[in-house]
Design a protein that fits this description.
Layout (H helix, E strand, L loop, with lengths): L1 H29 L3 H37 L2 H29 L8 H35 L1
Helix pairs in contact: 1-2, 1-4, 2-3, 2-4, 3-4
Length: 145
């Protein structure tokens, strides 16, 4: 049961942070104008990576281990959804990140604004994946109790 609780905790922290970014931080940064939004996004994303990457990796590994030991499909499914955040970020989100991080980007341009808005939508997928995993974990814990 400890593995399931830890997997749920890490997933919940990840999902909460991801949802906070989508619902609060990113809209707030966009409301400050494109130049400031890009300027703030750059260090914010780097710092967020150090929080969210380990949460997704360790949380999903704990979920896979919980599935392996208990054979409850919910932990496999939730672990897969949480783990999917990692390749999604590396394959789909990373190209947008690189463009936003580029020193060649005119931080006052409509291109910069479009990239920020795209990034917000892509990050929304990360939020949806992790929140879905969190709900699955909570239901699995409740069913086990």
């Amino acid at each position: 049961m400890v593995l399931q609780i830890l997997a749920t905790l890490l997933c919940g922290i990840f999902a909460g942070a991801a949802l906070y970014v989508n619902l609060v931080e990113h809209p707030a940064r966009l409301s400050c104008g494109v130049k400031l939004a890009v300027t703030e996004w750059r260090p914010s994303y780097k710092r967020g990576t150090f929080l969210q990457a380990p949460l997704a990796l360790v949380g999903s590994l704990l979920a896979f281990l919980a599935w392996w030991l208990g054979r409850d499909f919910a932990w496999l499914l939730g672990g897969f959804l949480l783990f999917a955040v990692i390749p999604f970020t590396l394959i789909v989100v990373y190209p947008t990140n690189r463009l936003l991080e580029s020193n060649e980007l005119d931080v006052t341009s409509t291109r910069a604004e479009a990239l920020l808005r795209l990034w917000g939508r892509l990050h929304g997928v990360r939020s949806a994946l992790s929140f879905s995993a969190f709900v699955i974990f909570l239901v699995a814990l409740r069913n086990r109790a």
